[in-house]
Design goal:
Helices cover 54% and strands 10% of the residues. It is of the alpha/beta class and 675 residues long. It has 2 domains: 406 residues, Growth Hormone, Chain: A, CATH 1.20.1250; 175 residues, Vaccinia Virus protein VP39 (Rossmann fold, 3-Layer(aba) Sandwich).
């Protein structure tokens, strides 16, 4: 059928040209709920199940499987929606009442933590969490899917995108406001009750009370608060006026706030070592990872006149303002900056006598929303070059942490040597603490024992910033987990969708889904590098992606676009341009030119890819199956994210291009000609 402007938009026979307002409303509510619950589960489970956040895209992939399954279920006479809320309530109560943790297994994992726990084996805990997430998300996805056949495909997709965008913006707003989990639950219950059939609302209200009761227990636990990144627990130790506060982030010990005098004289030796090894002039000091302020207090005690204190988490910094016994943030010489450390280094014009990396890393993850999150753009060669540029001619740099592995210490020391041109001072202790110190002028350093590397040194670059990935082999636990996810997805599609051969007409949409998620992953990494790994940047990227997808759908609905073959050629050209123009080339640009170029390079391929998807989706005779297959393809894309560990982020564009090529070759000939 031809629309008013002459474009084609197929629709089921017998339906009115105008969409039913009741169906539109239901679709908007269900899609908004779906994205809101997905993001809430990613954050809440990552904060409540210890070590789960280190499998950061695990919950995301479970969500994708559930959403795809929900669309397939929407073709059935039976419904999974009635059990979605009960399972959500049971999951929340179960995790709160019976704390679950993922057992860490050293070399099997590509992260390290200080927390030794006793939990169920990963092979048991991970499948249970994955399965529950999938079933919970299948409920609202089913409601969305049941709306699709009642509307023209592109119209349904359009409203699904609008609802999804509302869900993302709503959850982002709550993150901005530091809202606790109880508020998330209250917000989610509003659309749940509106979407529930009148004869089941009493039952749903009962399960809602259970859910909110569990979240209330968590919310009103003394010392618990939420930042945009973590669930924070500030635990007062010893006497209330002692100044000792243990800060946990997502259940993992994160910082010990203690008096500066104690940290220097009785605490860990890492705090005093930089001041012993490096020049004494401290007119201007930059501390990245300032956190609750203990490192700032020590710098002031050592004679610092001006301190720029940078930390990514506003809540942890506020705890320092309120509870640090030394009151470092009240000092007029201290200026607080809530920002990503790398982003601050790239944009500051001040020169420093000392730059200190005070325990910053990605051990407690800043976001599990999409990508692997094992990277840290703060420890690459390019980042240390930014440090070098920000130092005065007689300045110095130091970093300290519980590095735990000799090869990791050698990697960091080797990076500073490569940038500064001479060996650093390296101090280590038996309890896995280490300090790497280096001055611009080698003769200004006062080292103890000479640094002798014990392992082969490999540094990390911005394109592959995986500090904790040694690079020799892929951890078996991750490989098994990915294999299990793919197998579960295949079984689900077969059970709910019938013989796989019947879905052959939509095979191209499957590969489009896989390619799209890889493209999104690459763009998140690029914007994190260019503008900081902050929740705000990530939220803008997620929202921007949906806006661009919506723009592509509107374009296809209202404008006569080129043939599908031409669109794929343009897509290939845009991917090639993004591959050739490296993100690091944009770092020297001023903010606005950098933003414009990065936006064009990142979002033009997304726009063209979704023009291609909209063309194919518009012609689908079974919009539910077509959309489900596309969503299930994203699971493969989510698993392929881990290829970046070996290929780097930029080469993910090659994998993306190959996936789109396969999609193009699989387009049914009739559909290709029609599009």
């Amino acid at each position: 059928m031809s629309t008013v402007d002459g474009t084609l938009d197929s629709k089921p026979s017998g339906y009115e040209e105008r969409d039913d307002p009741a169906v539109v409303t239901r679709l908007l509510l269900a899609s908004g709920l779906m994205l809101f619950v997905e993001l809430a589960l990613i954050r809440w489970l990552g904060s409540s199940v210890v070590h789960l956040s280190y499998f950061s895209n695990f919950v995301l992939l479970g969500s994708f499987l559930g959403i795809g399954a929900g669309f397939l279920i929407s073709r059935k006479e039976w419904s999974i929606w009635p059990i979605s809320l009960p399972l959500l309530a049971i999951l929340v109560i179960g995790v709160i009442q019976f704390p679950v943790s993922i057992e860490r297994q050293g070399s099997d994992l590509i992260y390290f933590t200080a927390l030794e726990i006793e939990g169920p084996p990963a092979w048991l805990a991970l499948p249970v969490v994955f399965g529950l997430v999938a079933v919970i998300l299948a409920g609202p996805a089913e409601l969305v899917g049941r709306c699709f056949p009642k509307m023209r495909p592109l119209s349904a997709y359009r409203y699904d995108l609008i609802g999804s965008l509302a869900g993302i913006l709503g959850f982002t707003a709550l993150s901005f406001l530091h809202a606790p989990s109880l508020v998330w639950g209250v917000v989610a219950m509003v659309p749940i009750m509106l979407l529930t059939a009148p004869n089941r609302r009493i039952i749903s209200a009962g399960w809602g009370v259970v859910l909110l009761a569990g979240l209330a227990m968590e919310t009103f636990t003394p010392g618990v608060s939420w930042s945009p990144y973590y669930k924070i627990n500030a635990e007062q130790m010893e006497e209330a006026d002692s100044g000792f506060v243990l800060i946990r982030a997502n259940g993992v010990p994160h910082q010990l706030m203690a008096p500066a005098e104690w940290k220097l004289e009785q605490g860990e030796r890492i705090y005093e070592t930089p001041y012993l090894r490096l020049p004494g002039k401290l007119d201007d000091v930059l501390i990245v990872g300032a956190g609750s302020g203990s490192d700032v207090a020590i710098a002031l005690r050592e004679g610092a006149k001006h301190v720029d204190a940078v930390d990514i988490d506003p809540r942890i910094m506020q705890i320092g303002v309120e509870m640090n016994i030394d009151r470092p943030y009240a000092n007029p010489g201290v200026q607080r900056h809530v920002n990503d450390g790398r982003a601050f280094l790239e944009n500051t014009e001040r020169k420093y006598d000392l730059i200190l990396f005070a325990l910053p890393d990605s051990l407690t993850l800043v976001s599990g929303a999409s990508q692997i999150r094992l990277e840290s753009f703060l420890f690459t060669e390019e980042a240390i070059q930014s440090v070098r540029r920000a130092l005065k001619p007689d300045g110095a740099f130091a970093m300290y942490n519980y590095y735990r592995e000799p090869w990791l210490i050698d990697r960091l020391a080797g990076t500073t040597q490569a940038v500064f041109g001479h060996e650093p001072c390296v101090d280590t202790w038996a309890d896995a603490q280490a300090v790497v110190s280096i001055a611009v002028q080698a003769e200004s350093q006062t080292c103890g024992e000479p640094w002798v590397p014990t392992t082969e040194i490999t540094t990390v670059k911005d394109d592959a910033p995986f500090l904790y990935f040694r690079g020799n082999s892929f951890p078996p636990l991750y490989a098994f987990t990915i294999g299990a996810i793919l197998l579960a997805s295949l079984v689900t599609v077969r059970l709910l969708g019938g013989p796989l051969g019947t879905m052959r007409p939509y095979a191209d949409l499957f590969f489009m889904g896989a390619a799209f998620l890889l493209l999104e992953t690459k763009n998140i990494a690029t914007f994190a590098l260019l503008f900081g790994t902050t929740w705000f940047v990530n939220a803008l990227v997620f929202a921007g992606v949906l806006v661009i997808v919506l723009a592509a759908v509107e374009t296809e609905r209202r404008v006569k676009t080129p043939p599908l073959k031409v669109v794929f050629i343009a897509l290939a050209a845009s991917l090639a341009a993004a591959w050739v123009i490296k993100p690091e080339w944009l770092l020297p640009l001023a903010f606005w030119p950098r933003l414009v170029v990065a936006t064009v390079l990142a979002f033009l391929p997304i726009y063209l890819a979704n023009i291609a998807f909209a063309k194919r989706f518009r012609e689908s005779s079974d919009s539910q199956s077509a959309f489900a297959i596309n969503l299930l393809g994203t699971i493969v894309g989510g698993c392929l994210e881990y290829a970046a560990l070996f290929t780097g982020y930029n080469n993910l564009l090659i994998v993306t291009g190959l996936l789109y090529l396969v999609a193009f070759l699989l387009v049914p000939r009739v559909a290709g000609r029609a599009a």
